[in-house]
Amino acid sequence: MNDRIEKRIELKASPARVWQALTDHKEFGEWFHINLEGPFVPGQVTRGNITYPGYEWLVVEFDVLKMEPKRLFSYHWHPYPADPAVDYSQETPTLVEFRLEEISGGTLLRVTESGFDKIPAHRREEAFRMNDGGWSEQLQNIEAHVAQKP
């Protein structure tokens, strides 16, 4: 199994527009389907409940690392915390990085999630599989979001 997920998409939106969709917590919440309690701030944790039907019980925490405008947004989180009875806080989180690059006609957005080798072996494969599919869906979500709200 690979240690990292890497996805990319070309968006027909400026880096400034994509940056806003990624880092404004209300916009992020719209396309990511999460109700965040507050803004993203480097060095702070932002949390919120998933809004996908059937997953509303799920609270996700984003430990924000870097926000380099129109270039890099990164955070740590616990991938696929699927069991509400489990405390995932003792696990080593994965690192999520969004990298933006201006291209002709828009922005190349790359998302990388790494550190799956540190996830406990009994849930590593499922967490990787679920997040791999999840990132494919989330890139479609942000693409639709920036197209609908230019």
Helix-strand layout with pairing:
Elements: E1 4-11, H1 15-23, H2 25-32, E2 34-36, E3 45-50, E4 59-68, E5 72-77, E6 94-103, E7 106-114, H3 121-148
Antiparallel strand pairs: 1-7, 2-3, 3-4, 4-5, 5-6, 6-7
In whole angstroms, the N-to-C terminal distance is 38 Å
Oligomeric state, counting identical vs distinct chains: single chain
Proper CATH architecture: 2-Layer Sandwich
Quote the CATH topology.
Alpha-D-Glucose-1,6-Bisphosphate, Chain A, domain 4
Number of strands: 7
> Which radius of gyration do the C-alpha atoms yield?
15 Å
Unreliable spans are none
What would the average pLDDT be, to the nearest integer?
Answer: 96
Number of helices: 3
Instruction: Assign the structural class, choosing from mainly alpha, mainly beta, alpha/beta, alpha+beta, or little secondary structure.
Output: alpha+beta
Q: Percent range for helical residues?
A: 25-40%
Overall outline: globular
- Strands of the largest sheet, in order across it? 1-7-6-5-4-3-2
Write the H/E string, N to C: EHHEEEEEEH
Pfam families: AHSA1
InterPro entries: ASHA1/2-like_C, START-like_dom_sf
Family: Belongs to the AHA1 family.
Organism: Geomesophilobacter sediminis
Describe the overall structure.
This is SRPBCC family protein. Belongs to the AHA1 family. Residues 12-146 form the Activator of Hsp90 ATPase homologue 1/2-like C-terminal domain. Pfam families: AHSA1. The chain is globular and about 45 Å long. The termini are far apart. It is built from three helices and seven strands, in the order βααββββββα. The model has no long low-confidence stretch (mean pLDDT 96). The chain is α+β, with helices and mostly antiparallel strands and 150 residues long. The protein has a seven-stranded antiparallel beta sheet with strand order 1-7-6-5-4-3-2, covered by helices on one side. The protein has a single domain (4-148), classed as START domain (Alpha-D-Glucose-1,6-Bisphosphate, Chain A, domain 4), CATH 3.30.530. A hairpin with an 8-residue loop joins strand 3 (45-50) and strand 4. It is 30% helix and 35% strand.
